[in-house]
Amino acid sequence: MMIVFNPAAGARRRRRLLAALDLMRGLGMRPEVAETTHRGHATVLARDAAREGVRIIVAAGGDGTIAEVAAGISGSDSALGVLPLGTANVLALELGLPRAPARAAEVLAMGRTSLLHPGLARYGDGREVLFVQMLGAGFDAAVVHHLPGGLKRAIGKGAYVLQTIREMPRYRFTTLCAELDGRREEAASAIVTKGRLYAGRFLLAPGADPHEEGFHVALFRDAGVLAAMRYGAALPLGMLPRLRGVDLIRAGTVRLAGIGVPAQADGDAAGALPLEIGPAPRPMRIVVP
Ligand SMILES: Nc1ncnc2c1ncn2[C@@H]1O[C@H](COP(=O)(O)OP(=O)(O)OP(=O)(O)O)[C@@H](O)[C@H]1O
Q1: 53-66 average pLDDT score
Q2: Does the CB atom of residue 61 touch ligand 1 within 6 A?
Q3: Residue 65, domain extent
Q4: CA gap 167, 161 in Å, rounded
Q5: Atom 16 of ligand 1 has which residue's CA nearest to it?
Q6: Which CATH number do you get for residue 83?
Q7: What is the ipTM score, two decimals?
Q8: How many domains does the chain have?
Q9: Closest ligand 1 atom to the C-alpha of 66?
């Protein structure tokens, strides 16, 4: 087993990692730990470990770190493990992975796995971005693009709320075009999700399951500040999936286009449209409780 640790959020994360390591050592495990030094590094570390035949490669960080490690092991026989140390930890909530470091370590020690079907976004320039949870295009991506890293480290999840309020008056709402299995739709924003949850434990797509193939696409039809406020208020109340102006559609492939529309994948900035989303070439195994 190898642990890929993102130390970016400081001392608290390191303490939680050490607590997990303590338990593992108590069980006689001696996992190697590699620390990331920059964005994208987790993918390189995980890819090298997968080539060496490491059986379980653990992402110790948030959803961005998990996505980077998943990209590194994609196509290999290594399984993905998770020590949830991030801000939102959506995948951990989705899969019922414990947040307490000792309990998360126990799950890793047991090594029970299930199949995960990540999504792969392909851009016009040939770039590819793998995601395990979701890809958003439009307003939520603008929030992610402009979120100051320092603010997130200082106040955690509240940073997203603050940045959403800041973004409302300045985001230039444009129409994006979504092609869902070839069927054309229009929306102000879209979230292509593998899972049920969004931004923490808030319900977005009740019928979704990351263990299944395909995507659930949430289309936010209405543009403008008032609509964004309505969506933002409905989310924590669990009312978003039933809200007027929100449609949820299943699809196996998704094309998104729109001039200057930003994209985010698993909570990290991921360029701009146009892009095409389909399944990753191979599903991967993930360690689950
Ligand atoms: N050493 C580093 N310094 C700065 N940034 C890093 C470093 N290592 C990784 N990163 C970047 O930090 C991003 C965010 O980290 P991560 O996902 O672990 O935490 P988070 O954003 O707080 O969690 P969540 O996504 O659950 O909200 C990663 O996508 C990665 O690109």
Answers
A1: 96
A2: yes
A3: 2-111
A4: 10
A5: 62
A6: 3.40.50.10330
A7: 0.94
A8: 2
A9: 17
